[in-house]
Design brief:
Elements lengths: L1 H22 L11 H16 L2 H14 L4 H14 L3 H8 L11 H15 L3 H14 L4 H14 L8 H13 L4 H14 L2 H14 L4 H14 L2 H9 L6 H14 L2 H5 L1 H12 L3 H17 L3 H9 L4 H16 L8 H15 L4 H9 L4 H11 L5 H17 L3 H11 L17 H13 L3 H9 L10 H4 L11
């Protein structure tokens, strides 16, 4: 027993040095407090760096099981989830418990977690960015800090006046510290695709494939490799086997094609991916997302008839509700008509009345249509009582439109600016409304009409990339309200 205790004490001294050497050779690093947690942490960090997300997730689970007070473990686990299934519900589940344990952290880790709290709990990206930058200055040799900064720029930067190029610089900084950091390599592949830099694509794809770790990301990288770097025969073979890939991989690829693909790639292989996504969908959630992605992509290309045909195929309660949401949303936001929005509004109103509840978007849309407006305004007020970003933004949007109707454009401008200060960031990529795409469009137009060129330019810049997939109907046509383009 005494020998075991001695060995435990030795490992407790050595393991922090091992992890430190791999990830931050100079800056101070927060470590777990038990030997079991230290062992799991070393394994988890190494697995994450190799892109072995399944192992990393299992090992981070062991970390927090062995040391539930180790807040960094929860956030590292959430970063794993963000690489393979970045939905709000899965991300929040991975984070569960982190907020209770912020003591005992090294300065950079403490500031980094404060940044996550500002971003995820309050939706305050500007406050989060300030903390992420501080963390990078406190621990410039810690790859995970630069990776967190890159993730922020990549996924949310455009909403908070930041350029996508900053993400590439941050991921380059990661590789400068840890050349085999697979998650950063995966992100940099996207930038090479965007520039159509074939040499960089091939180099980065080969580097990623060299890690040899199975994951949704590896699956997607393989598809990109075939589509962009192989001959016609391989491409045709891939298109025939798209259904053999996971729904999550197809969903991930559909997003990447829209962000970084050329018009030809969007309208060619991108359509094949969307078709496979629709056919692969097996659960209510998957069917809804497949329909949402397809309709948004159709509208982005101005293929309104295709969008209508997709909606007409809805045949389950979940997809029929999604159809009704699109029918009403397209009407209140000024998109092309997708069908009988009046009947859709009646059905949504009946659902709200029957269930005695409704999502904030339904309340907002019905208030826009002046259907029992007072009741829906009150519902939004209740949902926004704790300053939740999305219901608060929707309530401010309604107030802004009332100001516009009263010809008080200055008040409307201020209200829309307030509405875009914070976002429900975990919902932004997949949600119908969380990116506030129509509001940002209208804000840009009003700012330009009032001669506020700086505000108009900043708002137009938020359409430089796709933050939410449902941005597509306006993002593709931003030149119509941003004369110089996004």
């Amino acid at each position: 027993d005494s020998l075991s205790e001695i060995m435990d004490a030795v490992w407790a001294q050595l393991l922090p040095l091992i992890v430190r050497g791999n990830f931050a050779p100079v800056s101070t690093v927060t470590m777990p407090h038990t030997l079991a947690a230290l062992l799991a942490y070393a394994n988890a960090e190494e697995a994450f760096r190799r892109g072995d997300y399944e192992t990393a997730h299992e090992e981070y689970n062991r970390v927090v099981a062995a040391d539930s007070s180790f807040a960094i473990g929860y956030f590292r686990r959430a970063l794993v989830v963000a690489q393979v299934d970045p939905r709000e519900e899965t991300f929040r589940a991975a984070l569960a418990g982190a907020q209770r344990h912020h003591s005992g952290l090294e300065p950079a880790d403490s500031v980094l977690l404060e940044g996550y709290q500002q971003l995820l709990e309050r939706g305050d990206g500007r406050a989060a960015l300030a903390r992420f930058k501080t963390a990078a200055s406190l621990a410039p040799d810690q790859p995970q800090v630069w990776f967190a900064l890159g993730e922020f720029y990549y996924h949310f930067g455009a909403l908070f006046d930041q350029g996508l190029h900053d993400a590439e610089l941050a991921f380059d900084s990661v590789l400068g510290l840890a050349p085999d950091f697979a998650p950063a390599v995966a992100h940099l592949i996207s930038f090479a695709v965007a520039r159509n830099d074939r040499d960089a694509m091939e180099r980065l794809i080969r580097q990623y494939e060299g890690f040899g770790t199975p994951s949704v990301v590896t699956e997607t990288v393989g598809i990109v490799d075939t589509l962009l770097l192989h001959g016609l025969t391989a491409k045709v073979a891939l298109q025939k086997t798209l259904l053999s890939h996971s729904f999550t991989a197809l969903e991930y690829l559909a997003f990447q094609v829209q962000i970084f693909g050329s018009p030809e790639q969007r309208r060619g292989p991108g359509r094949d991916v969307l078709d496979a996504l629709e056919r692969k969908a097996a659960t209510d959630s998957e069917r809804v997302y497949a329909l949402r992605f397809g309709v948004a992509a159709d509208l982005g290309e101005e293929w309104v008839d295709s969008a209508r045909a997709r909606l007409a195929r809805a045949d389950t309660p979940a997809t029929m509700r999604e159809r009704d949401m699109w029918l009403v949303l397209s009407n209140v936001t000024g998109l092309d008509s997708l069908g009988d929005w009046r009947s859709a509004a009646e059905r949504l109103a009946a659902q709200v009345a029957a269930e005695r509840r409704g999502g904030e978007l339904v309340h907002w849309m019905l208030a826009r249509l002046d259907r029992d407006r007072t009741r829906h305004l009150a519902a939004l007020d209740r949902l926004a009582a704790d300053s939740a970003p999305l219901p608060l933004a929707l309530r401010l949007d309604l107030d802004a439109r009332r100001s516009l109707a009263a010809r008080d454009s200055a008040s409307a401008l201020g209200l829309w600016q307030a509405a875009t200060e914070r976002y429900a960031v975990l919902r932004v990529p997949f949600d119908l409304a969380a990116s506030l795409w129509w509001l940002r469009r209208d804000l840009a137009q009003l700012a330009r009409a009032r001669g506020d060129t700086a505000l108009a330019a900043r708002t137009c810049d938020s359409f430089a990339s796709i933050i939410g997939y449902v941005d597509l109907p306006v993002q593709r046509h931003a030149s119509q309200f941003c004369p110089r383009g996004p």
